[in-house]
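Homework help board

Subject: predicted structure for assignment chain

Our instructor gave us this sequence and asked us to write out the predicted structure in token form, then describe one feature. I got the tokens but I'm not sure how to describe them. Can anyone check?
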Amino acid sequence: MPFTINQTNVKNWEDLDYQETFEVCTMLMFIGMSEITEDNVAEVHARHTLNNMICGIERKDAYTLEQFRKRIGVEVNVSPLTQRQFISRFTRELKILTDRNKQFIKEAELEIKTGDDIQRLEEGGMAEAELEVQSNG
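My token output:
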């Protein structure tokens, strides 16, 4: 299914930057919103902010509430997510990132420990290093 953008209901849409509008509309797909309305513009911005946190996008690169307000009336053909569905997906993504970070920390600690063991071996403390490896292993 092709991605379509309907901006005919956007006030002064001809004056808006097309590339920025396209990027905003593409982002709607990631946050599960099929339109920007007067009633949901704050939620669109909030979801965008949460999505940026997960993706590691810096604040200076985020869209502002005003950029969304300028596009009230835009519609895209994406399957909308309810608030519950979005929060569930956000929580799942956050857990995945947290688990990856925990694994990264474990691997870094292991590298540090291995580096300490190598240093002890080089200093002649082989028995001490072996004992620690056995007790942790």
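Reply (TA_rk): Your tokens look well-formed. For the description, you could write something like this. The mean pLDDT is 82. That's the kind of observation they're looking for.
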